[in-house]
Amino acid sequence: MFMNFRRIHKCQVVQLLTACMVLCVVMVSWEELDHHVVSHMRSYTYRYLVNSYDFLNSSFNITSNRHRKDGSTNGLVTYPYLINHPGKCAWGDGKSGDDVLLLLFVKSSPENFERRQAIRDTWGNESFVFSELGATVRMVFALGVDAKRRSRVQRALLQEDQTYGDLIQQDFLDTFHNLTAKLITQFHWVHEYCPQARFLMSADDDIFVHMPNLVKYLRQLLSNKSGVKDFWVGHVHRGAPPVRRKESKYHVPYDLYPWPSYPDYTAGAGYVVSGDVASKIYQATQVLNSSIYIDDVFMGICAKAMGVSPQEHVYFSGEGKAPYHPCIYDHMITSHGHATDVRSLWQAATDPAVYGKARGFMGNLYCTAVRAMMLCRPYYQNSYSCMAAFT
After folding, report:
1. Is the model more confident about 267 or about 27?
2. 210 and 174 in one domain?
3. What is the DSSP annotation of 145-193?
4. I need a surface site. Which of 47, 62, 141, 155 has the fewest CB within 10 A?
């Protein structure tokens, strides 16, 4: 009896110590656990069971007296243009509108000249798209003012624009917390200077766009006799919870957004909307305040208020970089995280030999197997989903 009692006692002590260790770990990492598990459970419950965002119009009305971190009122703020090109979408006479298939609005920072130049030389090359693909595409870069207000940076921007004529700059500091101001700039500029564009694409300056595939995709949409309405496509985030960790740059406090879930939105790295949606978002920015400084989320709030929902496209990348392979290039639309390799990727992805890999039954079978092995691994889930392998 004495030996059995000792064994039981030791077992209980071990269990107690184990429980204490687990409790300590949970307490230490609770905030992280709450963000990744509890907040997502709350968010998905709200998104799929309650699924009501009726508070948007009332809570984000422009008369709201909320304040930014810098203390300014979150009403409708319009910034003057420092650099502008009102005739970018017009013919030479500056009056007649050109038939613009796609307006590319690339969000860039003042110091990112090399990224802008790489885009001009590759997927953003208007002349290439017109001569090789027969499509009229216009591209501009959206900029604020250098955060350190360095005069040499502004002089360099003026010289750059004099050479290329594709910069749109407004007088606000180009910082993370002003990304929403940059988003508002793009929709106001489209409304004012390029309303005839069939589609608008918003993109970061570290994104790669497979322009031949994108143009083909948009033309297929236009071939539908019913027309293209309420179209918003990209990598969709559904039921995403606000980040409450103060150390995160995506931190959103409860007093700014108290609800457990954001409306559905697309990753801001790259998405496409039809002309009518661009007009609706413009209208929304006129009546909703811009207190949310995460531009992707603000886009979702505006779209939800206007009755527009995002559509998932498996070959629009999220925050991740797509794998490099000819069988991926054959379907690729966007890939994120290309600050230095845009030129080499463009050369590889648009090589005519790429398309020969997937022709015929055996070629399709081979590429499906390759894509499945690549995309169905967790590493690439933030770029293309596993479903993309079979699409």
Report:
1. 267
2. yes
3. E-TT--HHHHHHHHHHHHHH--EEEEEEE-SGGGHHHHHHHHHHHHHHH
4. 155
Contact 188, 77 (CB under 8 A): no
SS3 270: strand
Cα angle 122-123-127, degrees, rounded to a multiple of 5: 80
Q: Which of 102, 297, 285, 78 is nearest to 187 (CA)?
A: 285
Residues 266 and 372 both lie in one domain? no
Same domain, 299 and 349: no
Shortest CA distance to 185 belongs to which of 89, 81, 67, 280? 81
Q: What's the burial of 151, exposed, middle or buried (CB within 10 Å: 0-12/13-18/19+)?
A: exposed
- What are the tens digits of pLDDT across the range 156-172? 999 999 999 999 999 99
Q: Which residues contact 249 (CB under 8 A, 6 or more apart)?
A: 176
- Least Cα distance to 293 among 191, 212, 173, 193 occurs for 173
In the numeric block, which tokens belong to residue 253?
């406090």
Q: 3-class SS at 236?
A: strand
User: What whole-number distance in Å separates Cα of residue 288 and Cα of residue 230?
Assistant: 19
Range of the domain at 33: 2-50
State the Cα–Cα distance between residues 98 and 24, nearest whole angstrom.
65
Q: Could you give the 3-state DSSP secondary structure of residue 84?
A: coil
Amino acid identity of residue 26, one-letter, is V
Please answer whether residues 389 and 376 qualify as being in contact, where contact means their C-beta atoms are separated by less than 8 angstroms. Answer: yes
Contacts of 300 (CB under 8 A, 6+ apart): 262, 263, 264, 265, 266, 310
Boundary (domain end) residue, out of 280, 312, 344: 312
List the structure tokens of 372.
């499945």
Q: What is the pLDDT of residues 199-244, one digit of tens each?
A: 999 999 999 999 999 999 999 999 986 779 999 999 999 989 999 8
